[in-house]
Each structure stands twice: as structure tokens, then as C-alpha cells.
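INFO batch 0412 | record 1 of 1 | parsing
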Amino acid sequence: MYVLASAFIFSTMEIALKITGSGGSLDEFQLTFIRFLIGGLFLLPFAVKEIRTRELKLGKHDYIYLFLLGFICICLSMVVFQMGVMASNASTAAVIFCINPMFTVFFAHFLTSEKLTRVKVVSMGISLIGLVCIINPAHINPGNTLIGMLMVFIAALLFGLYSAMGKRRIERIGGLAQTSLSFLFGAAALLICMIVLRRPVLFEIGTHNILNILYLSIVVTGLGYLFYFKAMEISNAGTAAVVFFLKPVFAPILAVIVLSEKLPLAAIIGIGFILAGSFINLGYKRKKQTPIAEETDHDSEQCAGKFS
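INFO prediction complete | emitting C-alpha cells
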């Protein structure tokens, strides 16, 4: 139930971002700042509990590490992602962003002890084929723009870097604690950027969009991650990773229903390739794990905050 709830919530993210950001009342910086500030605060009590349970004492280097994670995730990846969502179909943005674990594998080769293997390279290649099918440069689907899809692609790449960096200390700090604190540090860094760039902070927030903002902040960014980590807590990382197989299926269907978007055959084929590549990678990792190691493996925690 936690997996299904988390997958469904994450699958509504691009739709909610599209609806809330339409009309230009909230710019990309403002919406990103508000939803991650509220979402990080929502997760904070659970993060504090996790820190106390682990009897963890955070030092100066931990806070610098968390600030850097937040800056890359919020100020770079999520702002660019919001721009990309507004310049493309919600279904397209959702599926393209789902390839970010491919970039995590790549960056992890240089930042962690995990190295690229032949199976990982094959899974990345299959996912890239799926990406080309979805973008379909020869016949771009109405509602999509090349610049919008490129922005989502860049956001996925940056989120892959965030996830790979996050693997270095997530086992010690904990998934909820690292996610909540990095969100709050990232929101603080984005606020500074907004002040320097003279961007609006709370302007144009009212009864016409407050429910959408709260949904994005509390439900998507808060409950989505809470359910994901709960699924991991009572099962294992491999089981929780099923969330990220379900989103490429759920998100396009919801976008068709809610936003009346059209899903061309090329996009459906592309989704199939991305799912196949992800399945090969996850299946390989599970095969290499022992039952005990699987319980403590935090590979899938690379996706922490993935669909923020």
C-alpha cells in the first residue's frame, strides 16, 4: 500500500505543477521555493525522530554536504524541471525525468565505490533508445517543445548528480533526515538567489492557487517521500524501487485523463524501452544481493526526492 500510494502521488506531480504554474501567476523560482520549504518542514519531525533513533550528531561537514545537496537539487535541478514542465506536456516531462537513475549510475561510478558494469551500460542504452522515441525529433507531439524537453533532460541529469552525491552519507544520516534537511537548505539557498535576482517570493498567492500549492508541498513533496521511505523501512530498497517503475505507467494515463493530453504510439514504445532498461538494472542488482545485504542496501535511496 505504501508503494502504490507513493507511486500514485508522484505520478500526479507534473500535472499539479502544470496546473499551478499555468497563467504565469507563480514563476518557476517562487513555486519551487514554496513547495520545497513546506515539504521539507512537513518531513522535519520524521527526520528529527530518525536522527534521535540513530543517535546521530551532525557536524560542520555534514551541514556543508547537506547544503550542497540542496543547492544542486532545488536551485538547479528542480527550477530547471519546473521550466521544462511548463514548456512540454506533463506526460512527456514525467517519463523523461524517470531516466534520472541512469545518470545516477553514471555519476556514482566517479563519486562512490559503485562502478559501471556491462549490464548497467546495456540498461542505460535501452533507456536512451526509449528517450529518443519519446522526444521523437522528426515529429514533436503537440504541446511539447524541444527546449522544454531539453530542460527536463538537464533536470534529470542534475538530479542524477544529486542522487549519486547523496549515496555517500545516506546510510549514516538516514533517508528521511537527509531528504528533509537538504530540501530546507536548498529552499534557503533558493530564497537568497530570488532576493538577489529580485524574484517574487510570496506574490500572487491567494485563494485561487493555495490548494494547489498545498497539494504540491504536503502531498507530493511530503507524503510522497514519507510513504516511499515507509515502504523501504518495512520491506527493503528493492521493493520500494517499484515506485519508480509504476510512475512511467501511471503519469501518462493521468495526464491523458486530467489534461486531455494525447499519447502517441512512439511515446508508448519509448515508455516500454525505459521500463525495460530499468527492470534490467534493478534485476541485476537484486540478483547480486544476498538476502541480508538486500535489507541494508540503499541503492534505491538514490531516488530520494526523485519526484519532488
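INFO post-check: Residues 32 and 208 are 18 Å apart (CA to CA).
INFO record closed
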